[in-house]
Every structure is written in C-alpha cells, then in structure tokens.
C-alpha cells in the first residue's frame, strides 16, 4: 500500500528505484560483482564464516580452561549462541541470495540480510528471542571485521554512473533499476564512499538541511531527503520508492499513476538541466556589466574536473578535511597531502584553488572513535582551527603540504572558525614556521594569499581585526547561521528554525561584505547560501561579487546573475535588510527588480 514519509529536502531531483535499507552499518563497500564471480564471492563469505567459527571455538577452549570466577558460565553460553547463529540457515541462504540473485558483493549481502533478520527479531513477542538481535549483530560484525582484515574483494567498485551489465540482471530482468539507500544516519565520510558506489539516491532518519552529509549529497547531485525520522523503520528491503529531493518527500510502494506523474517530473527536470547547460560558456556578467566570480566548492582533488566542466573560474573552498576522515587515526602525511593538493591545483589548469585547512569536529568526526570521544556539544568544541592549533605538529604538516602545492599554481589558504586574535596570531606564526622549515629543507614552495572564514558572529563583529591580518575573507554562512541562531545545523528537530534569512544573519553577512568592499579586500560567500538561486539577487544587491558553491549549482546561479541589475537591486536589498520577515520579500514573484531574459 502506498504511503508517504516527510523529511527535509537536501538535494534536488527525483529518484525512482528499489530501497536498500540499512538501519545499522553503512561503512562497508557496496558494489556489484560480475555473474562469473558469484562462486568466488560465496566462497569468500564461507571462508570468513569458517574462520570466525574457529575463532569462537578457540575462545571457548580458553574459557573452559579458566575457572568459573574468571570466565563465568554465561560467557560460554553466549559463544554457543554465536556459533549457532553463524550457521543459521536464514542467514546463510539469505546472504547467498543477495550475492547470486542481485550480484551484491559479500559485505553488502551480509549487511542486507542482517537487516532483514533484525526486523524479524524486532517483531518477536518473546523478549529473550528479541534480545538475540544484538548477538546476531555481533556475529555479523566479526565476519565483516575478518573480511576487512584478510580477504580481498573480487572486483573493484565500479563508479555509480557506469552503465553496468550486472544491473541489467537485477529485478527479474528489469533494466538498470536505481537503488535508493535508506539509513538511520550517514556520516560525511560514508557519503564520500558513495561517490564511488551504486546508489542513486538516499534517505536518512536524522540530519539537517545543512549538515555535512546533506552538503556532500548536493555536491554529488543526487536526490536526497534527510530528517525523515522513521524511514529506516518503515521502508522494507526492496520496496519501490520515489525520492523527491525538491519537496523532501519519500513515497513508498507508489501506484502506477503516481509513478507516471513522477516519471514526467523527472523528464521535465532533465529538460531544464539541458536548457541551463547552454549557459556553461557564457561569462557571468550582470545587466549593468558587473563581472561576477562563480567558484566551486569541492571535497576531493578529483572534483576539480567537475568544477571545470561546470564552468567554475576557480575553487573557492576545498574542504580538505575529507581526506582526514574515516582513517581510524591514521592521518595523511605531508607527502600524501601535498600530492592531493597538487592534483587539485593542476586539475584547475591555472585557475585559483582555495584550500581550507582541516575542519573536523561537530558533524564531521574523524572517525567513530573521535565521534564517541566528542564532548557534549561538539559544534562548540574542539573543531576546525581549534583542533589544528591543539596539535601544532599535525597542523604544520598540513601547512607545509599546502605551501608546497602552491609552487604548482595559484593557491589561497583559508582558515576556518577563527574568533580570537590570539588564534589568528598563532595561525600566522605557524604558517611562517612551515615556510621556514621548507626553506631549511631546501624544498620548493609558493606564495599563498591568506584568508579567514567568517562563520562565528564574534568574527563578523570584529572585522577590522580580521582585515588587518588577512588578504581576503570568505563568509561561511552555514556555520554563521548555526552560531548566530544557536541552531545545530545537523539536528532535524530544530531544522525549522535554521533560517538563512533571519534579520540578524543578513545583517552580519551584509556588514561583512560592505566592510570588505570599503577596504578593497576580496570577499566571497562559500556557504550553501551562495549556491541557492533564490538568494543570488539579494547577495548581489548587498554588494557580493564572488560566490562559491557546488559545481552543480553554478549554472542556476549564473542564470540569476545574467538577469540581475545590481544598481537596481541595491535599494531593494536595503529594504530586505530592514524587514521583520525578509524571506517574504525573497519569494518568487516578489517585487525584486529583475529583467527576465
Ligand atoms: C560554512 O560554514 O558555511 C562552510 C562553508 O563551511 P562548512 O559547511 O564546511 O562548515
Ligand atoms: Mg563552516
């Protein structure tokens, strides 16, 4: 029966496909194997299962040799249960099914079947049996850990966009059915894995519109809905789902009429995209001849190609922290970082690249350990530059790598989350130390412009200090909104209060732009506001001339730029700033002066 789940829209577009539900683990590889690899893949699973069974038996022997004080009887009983679960027919046959019929890789098949069985356990009346779910999860975890450490996958993951013959075999001969990942939560690091994976869309129970998970979804340009609260419980494995990333709605088990309606919407969106693509080579100049800089936000060095293809005139924000995440404490060394930054610089073919120093913490934990160790309020904790300054050796490693990459092209260095002049001085001193260390080694490095992010109200209110020390500023509206309004950007329960148009936010943005313009210092906006076409005219009216956004947004924003007259927008922008409810003046059809093409 058709039903609808409401969440928050985060990444535009519509996906129609089959659900892959993962309420538990998502950090395993997901890819399709070739039909002739099925036997090997099942053998890989079997040998992992046998190895884990041997391990459990050895553990039992050790326990048997101990006295009842050191190893209580229950421990041995638990291991009995685990051994039994390892051989469970439903587990074994189910996993084989996902490998043989759907061509899922072994880890994916195991977690999928685990999900199916977990639901069975949840529905059990008997409390004792219901509690066996956690035993099953522990057993599966052991097998996954074994496979991670020992066995190598039979095939590298193909990119999501590659048409794959395997997909033709899916779903009883239905060709190329997109898969929609439905999960309780996804970390930004999980999302990066999906850049390489098979999912065409995703839905999560938790998360806000400007959480980093949502931001990566937008950068991947895949329809997504977050903050759905219950999707991972209500949607079942393999259900047909429609994800409407514009409306923030998930329709489960849609009727043929609804399917047809959404199929039509999908085609309309495609047409709109191809219409916009004609603007790719058009310079971003307003009607009153103001040249506007449209830059790209990227997460990985190879995203430079996407940025160039979208017509970006540089990278305004390279979120370097993605290279640091999901590595279980094994952070990238100077050489690895240098090569990555150099790849981005060379990839931009002479256009400038703004590398932001690492911004982990808050909703971007380095890994699970880091997440667990986070303090009660990680958004206000050891995050971004605070984290970097807490470990100068680690920070110097990054600074040297960036300076070395600057020998290969135009590089700007951007520092996140500064608030205190002390932090500014410490940071600048470390940049000088890094340079001196490279000189001492005789290693080549290049000049960099130094910029600060304005993302804490305290920074926006002390601009003169920032302008004294830095060559340019970049307004991080995602955090500026979070910290001005005291709204956790990743918390769906307060998402309705996360308001980019709050008069206080607009005032801080406006004053930052005005002060920079008055002093002739470059300023850009690199938060999500810059990529939202509904905000373009306002930002132009406030005097902004440089926008940094996901490459996927560049053409839509450029369209707004081409239609704008900044002189006429100026007085209107002032009115917006003065309004009690500025968003009412921004709505489509409002009195904003534009000339339509
Ligand atoms: C911001 O805060 O606006 C920003 C661009 O940085 P991030 O989203 O990575 O916190
Ligand atoms: Mg930020």
Automatic annotation (TrEMBL):
The active site is at 212 (tele-phosphohistidine intermediate), 526 (proton donor). The keyword Cytoplasm applies. Mg(2+) binds at residues 455, 479. Residues 179-248 form the PEP-utilising enzyme mobile domain. It catalyses: L-histidyl-[protein] + phosphoenolpyruvate = N(pros)-phospho-L-histidyl-[protein] + pyruvate. Keywords: Cytoplasm, Kinase, Magnesium, Metal-binding, Phosphotransferase system, Sugar transport, Transferase, Transport. GO terms for molecular function: kinase activity; metal ion binding; phosphoenolpyruvate-protein phosphotransferase activity. Pfam families: PEP-utilisers_N, PEP-utilizers, PEP-utilizers_C. Residues 6-132 form the Phosphotransferase system enzyme I N-terminal domain. Residues 275-564 form the PEP-utilising enzyme C-terminal domain. Its main location: cytoplasm. Its EC number is 2.7.3.9. Phosphoenolpyruvate binds at residues 319, 356, 478-479, 489. GO terms for cellular component: cytoplasm. General (non sugar-specific) component of the phosphoenolpyruvate-dependent sugar phosphotransferase system (sugar PTS). This major carbohydrate active-transport system catalyzes the phosphorylation of incoming sugar substrates concomitantly with their translocation across the cell membrane. Enzyme I transfers the phosphoryl group from phosphoenolpyruvate (PEP) to the phosphoryl carrier protein (HPr). This is Phosphoenolpyruvate-protein phosphotransferase.
